[in-house]
Amino acid sequence: MRALIRTMSWLLVFGLAGCATGTPQNLLQPDRADTHLGWQPAPENQLAYSVATASGIARLVLDRLPDNLNRVSLELPGMQRVEGVQWRGDDGDKAMLFSGGSGEPGVRLEERRRGFILHIEGAALDRIRVGGLLTVVDFYRG
């Protein structure tokens, strides 16, 4: 009976973690004082976070992402019109993943009632997998 309970506990931990390798909460950290980040449960081999910022610019530092990861989703509540998603990798690579109304293959911005959800997968996820700085810019609020 104890073995069954211990096995069920491990399955619950790995199922809620979304990604069985690494601690999801530590793979992504805010880089600006006004950026607040929350981890959310996700299906296996996926990561999901909620990002809020007062300035309209969310800068996030990614650690190296696990090889078995197939999607990162960022919920962006409060953003009104995402103008761009920029990437600067630890390997020196940099790219504009999303600009205006379109993005690189594997980058999709989904409009919600209040804000957006940014999905990064496929070739775009492979690009950011090395770790680095991800910047999401909402419209100019000056």
Our Rg estimate from Cα atoms comes to: 16 Å
Residue fraction in strands: over 45%
Helix run count = 2
Q: Regarding CATH, which class? A: Mainly Beta
Helix content: 10-25%
Q: How are the secondary structure elements laid out?
A:
Layout: H1 2-17, E1 28-30, E2 35-40, E3 46-53, E4 57-62, E5 71-76, E6 82-89, E7 94-99, E8 102-103, E9 107-112, E10 115-121, H2 122-128, E11 132-138
Parallel strand pairs: 3-5
Antiparallel strand pairs: 1-4, 2-3, 4-11, 5-10, 6-7, 6-11, 7-8, 9-10
Give me some keywords for this one.
142 residues; alpha+beta; Immunoglobulin-like; 6-stranded antiparallel beta sheet; 5-stranded mixed beta sheet; 16% helix; globular; disordered N terminus
Describe the structure concisely.
Helices cover 16% and strands 46% of the residues. It contains 2 helices and 11 strands.
Q: How would you describe this protein?
A:
β6 (82-89) and β7 form a beta hairpin. Helices cover 16% and strands 46% of the residues. It starts with a helix and ends with a strand. The chain has 142 residues and is α+β, with helices and mostly antiparallel strands. It has a 6-stranded antiparallel beta sheet with strand order 1-4-11-6-7-8, with helices on one face. Strands 2-3-5-10-9 form a 5-stranded mixed beta sheet.
